[in-house]
Amino acid sequence: MSLKIALLPGDGIGPEVTEEAVRILKNVAEHSGRAFSFSSHVIGGAAIDGEGTGLPERTLEAALNADAVLLGAVGHPKFDGRLPSERPEAALLALRQALGGFANLRPAIYYAPLAKRTPFQPERVRGANLLIVRELLGGLYFGEPRGFEASGNTAFNTLIYSRHEIERVAKVACDRARERRKKVASIDKANVLETSRLWRAVVSDDAKAYPDVELEHVYVDTAAMRLATAPASFDVMLCDNLFGDILSDQAASISGSLGVLPSATIGGKVDLYEPVHGSAPDIAGKGLANPIGAIASAAMLLRFSANMDKEAAEIDHAIEEALASGARTKDLAGPGDRVLSTRDMGQAIEEALHEVRDRKHSYHGV
Ligand code: IPM
Ligand code: MN
């Protein structure tokens, strides 16, 4: 049976980077004998332009009927003047809600070949490899009431969390930690916010079922500082929706570019995979975008939605190898580096993938 993958390339650089992720998935299909079927659908600004709504019914239906959804990016500055509910981003939030995935996994890794691209001293960042587990369906993003008062001079949002919402994401964080270095840092602002006090209490309770996992509670402001001074001290960072949004962009500095960060959203009806970077309209259509975030998201798709751990790990290695051999898109290039196009970077990773497989075969042959 083939794995049904719904592609939602979206806006800006979304289509270009999604194409490279599909290239790698097709290569995996060819070599593994697993069949993937792809269907592509509009979302975000592209859908508002073509169909008058950011999340057309047909797109939503295709996503709900798929085995996994791979999304590019949404957003365009031409919608900046609109209310939040009428912007392309609203379509992404509605999609997340409909698919139901509440745990957004955002790994951030230090890649030695990119050391010069990070703002860090090498000795501070060496070995940094962390996973942000971001609560994705609650908190300030969705809390009601929200809006503007009639005067237009006052606006409000609601930060609200229930025990259930915290419990389920805390469990994902502890489960992931078990597969890693067995440490969870739960991020909150419990010195000021009631929701954070509840968050802290519930996470502490939940973690009791994981005596092998070491739990610490860290204020979000302290966490931001520690991400900048000692990122390798983190393993899993458990965050609410807004803190996770902010800290995951900050964590990108560990890799040197937001362009390399992937994400997976799990726990709902259909899991959703998307690079963390946005639509970057300023470079869209120019072949300048970095496809690594999308390709690494495809690797996460194989890991979580296709049970293909080996193939996922091979893609991750191929990305590292391509970087080690000097492949650079514009965001990663230093002075004097040759700059690859989006497509050439996809190709470089595909070639590296062949090498990774060949090497494995020869190990096994000995
Ligand atoms: C992200 C993005 C989205 C978010 C936007 C586009 C709605 O910034 O995935 O991090 O805030 O969740
Ligand atoms: Mn974000």
Question: How are helices and strands ordered from N to C?
Answer: EHEHHEHEHEEEHEHEHEHEEHHH
Task: Give the end-to-end Cα distance, rounded to a whole number of Å.
Answer: 34 Å
Note the beta-strand portion: 15-25%
Radius of gyration: 20 Å
Short description:
This protein is of the alpha/beta class.
Keywords for this entry:
single chain; 366 residues; alpha/beta; two-stranded antiparallel sheet; 16% strand; globular; binds 3-isopropylmalic acid; binds manganese (II) ion
Q: What can you see in these coordinates?
A:
It is a single chain. With 366 residues, the protein is α/β, with parallel strands linked by helices. It has helices spanning 14-32, 45-51, 57-64, 88-99, 122-125, 163-178, 194-207, 220-229, 241-255, 292-305, 309-324, 342-365; strands at residues 3-10, 36-40, 68-73, 103-109, 129-135, 147-148, 155-156, 183-188, 214-219, 236-239, 264-266, 271-273. It has a 10-stranded mixed beta sheet, with helices on both faces. Strands 6-7 form a two-stranded antiparallel sheet. A hairpin with a 6-residue loop joins strand 6 and strand 7 (155-156). Helix 1 (14-32) runs parallel beside helix 12, helix 6 (163-178) packs across helix 7 (194-207) and helix 8 runs parallel beside helix 9. The longest helix has 24 residues, at 342-365. The protein is globular and about 60 Å long. The two termini are 34 Å apart. The structure holds 3-isopropylmalic acid and manganese (II) ion. 3-isopropylmalic acid binds at residues 75, 89, 92-93, 245, 276, 278.
